[in-house]
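Exercise 7b. Backbone tokens:
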């Protein structure tokens, strides 16, 4: 196990380096210029091109943007190796501060969506599999297809419109409370995006779990368990579900990674200042250090979530050995 972990971590290092290199290249060729935009917004009435050009050159020199791209790349990698993700062009604070500010909102939305996704997808997948081709199975499959096909932003917008129109509750978009600050108001704000996001992510898990359980139910050892007279609950929980979850865990891991990396659309619709929304702001402002730090951290998180999923395989199926 220790050798496997070391090897996987060493393999992940080039992956993170490649992501860091690609985001550096992408932000280097990104249209627009933070300095030019800042000068234009700070002094829109200036008519002296020479003075404006001199000011732009001075700011670019201060930010290190006048260096050749190779020099900037070497400095960028050197900072990464030291754990320094740079300083925001806009706030002059550490680029990590934007992530720290948005992370509580994204974590809360992700946890709520994940709970709703698991509570709906796992039971529905199990019931749909063990009651194959029944009326209940058809109803649950139609529900999962609708949840998978309907765009989450559209469903969330429709829900918000009806809730506002019928006056069920007021969505506190302006105050943006977290659960530990104001539980009731926070639930009102996060309820719609959490339900919509959870159902959308859980629909794929439900369909995969159903297909995997149907495949396991046809195995000889399951027929033997039925022949021994075991109760349905024991057969499903001990023999079928545990083996069917191995491929499902992979999808769950990717879903968790996707949720924690920020739901850009839903966060923007409901004004939730999470990671996804802050990434959009950083791209709009051409705040390069913040963009780079967000992408590198999210990529690192996704890589190690995948490692955790691989380790979980051995827990679910003792036949799997790490070497």
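Sequence design result:
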């Amino acid at each position: 196990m220790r050798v496997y972990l070391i090897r996987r971590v060493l393999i992940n290092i080039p992956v993170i380096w490649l992501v860091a290199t690609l985001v550096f290249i992408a932000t280097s060729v990104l249209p627009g210029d933070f300095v030019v935009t800042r000068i234009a917004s700070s002094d829109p009435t200036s008519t002296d091109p020479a003075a404006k050009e001199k000011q732009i050159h001075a700011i670019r020199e201060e930010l290190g943007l006048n260096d050749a791209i190779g020099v900037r790349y070497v400095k960028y990698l050197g900072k990464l190796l030291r754990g320094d993700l740079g300083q925001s062009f806009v706030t002059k604070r550490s680029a990590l501060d934007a992530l720290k500010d948005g992370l509580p909102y994204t974590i809360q939305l992700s946890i709520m969506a994940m709970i709703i996704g698991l509570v709906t997808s796992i039971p529905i997948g199990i019931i749909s599999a063990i009651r194959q081709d029944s009326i209940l199975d058809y109803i649950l499959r139609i529900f999962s297809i609708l949840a998978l096909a309907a765009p989450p932003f559209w469903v969330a917008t429709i829900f918000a419109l009806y809730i506002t129109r019928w006056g069920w509750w007021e969505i506190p978009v302006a105050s943006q409370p977290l659960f530990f600050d104001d539980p009731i108001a926070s639930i009102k704000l996060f309820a719609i995006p959490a339900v919509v996001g959870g159902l959308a992510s859980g629909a794929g898990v439900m369909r995969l779990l159903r297909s995997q359980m149907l495949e396991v139910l046809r195995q000889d050892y399951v027929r033997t368990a039925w022949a021994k007279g075991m109760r349905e609950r024991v057969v499903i929980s001990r023999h079928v579900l545990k083996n069917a979850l191995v491929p499902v865990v992979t999808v769950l891991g990717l879903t968790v990674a996707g949720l924690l990396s920020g739901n850009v659309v839903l966060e923007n619709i409901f004004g939730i200042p999470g990671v996804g929304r802050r990434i959009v702001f950083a791209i709009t402002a051409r705040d390069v250090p913040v963009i780079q730090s967000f992408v590198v951290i999210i990529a690192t998180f996704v890589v190690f979530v995948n490692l955790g999923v691989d380790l979980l395989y051995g827990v679910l199926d003792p036949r799997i050995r790490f070497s």
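Instructor comment: The CA atoms of residues 220 and 226 lie 10 Å apart. The chain has a mean pLDDT of 80.
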